[in-house]
């Protein structure tokens, strides 16, 4: 199993957390996104989407972090990252997708680079774009998690799930861009619980071999 990753990619960060939680050791192949290594050469041939993460398993290439994590969860079911009941699974997937589909794509590196280099926006404008969508997305998550009784120590109950695996990297990135997170006490409480688990803490960008 080979995990194509970049230390600052929040999507690759998710997969690192899942691998750690499952106790799986995967070979790491580093793809430097800011140098454009994803856009050409061997990696672009491997993954036409030109995005990390990608996971090579038994001669096949899996893409998209949530699909990779669900594969890992099916193949290595303990500890489970999705609850047993259909409604609970749907809730956890919904929380995860709120990050992976609503927040992250608008603030992905290639979008920010196009705003700056392709459309000529100043860095301050790009940063304002990022923070706007962070506020929209995290405010909704805060409201949902604060009101729903299924929220426990973690996003769902008292064990980490796919929702927590997506939330922690997003909060990490928000801090990198100077976002004020003081208005999200529920999210911060959940993040603190997650980071007390070595699997989360050891997946942090600054602890990766390719960190700069």
- Contiguous low-pLDDT stretches (5 residues minimum) are none
Gyration radius, in Å: 17 Å
Task: Tally the helices.
Answer: 9
Strand order of the largest sheet: 2-1-3-4
Number of strands: 4
Major sheet summary line: 4 strands, mixed
Write down the overall mean pLDDT. Answer: 96
Q: Which structural class is indicated by helix and strand composition?
A: alpha+beta
Q: Which percent bin holds the helix content?
A: 40-55%
Calculate the terminal CA-CA distance, rounded to whole Å: 25 Å
- What is the string of helix and strand elements? EHEHEEHHHHHHH
Q: In what range is the share of β-strand residues?
A: 5-15%
Inertia-based shape = globular
Task: Chart the SSEs and their pairings.
Blueprint: E1 2-5, H1 10-22, E2 27-30, H2 41-46, E3 54-57, E4 60-63, H3 65-75, H4 86-103, H5 109-118, H6 123-147, H7 162-176, H8 185-195, H9 198-201
Parallel strand pairs: 1-2
Antiparallel strand pairs: 1-3, 3-4
Helix pairs in contact: 1-3, 1-7, 4-6, 4-7, 7-8
What does this structure look like?
- The chain has 212 residues and is α+β, with helices and mostly antiparallel strands.
- 53% of the residues lie in helices and 8% in strands.
- The chain has nine helices and four strands.
- It has a four-stranded mixed sheet with strand order 2-1-3-4, with helices on one face.
- Helix 4 packs parallel to helix 7.
- The longest helix has 25 residues.
- The model has no long low-confidence stretch (mean pLDDT 96).
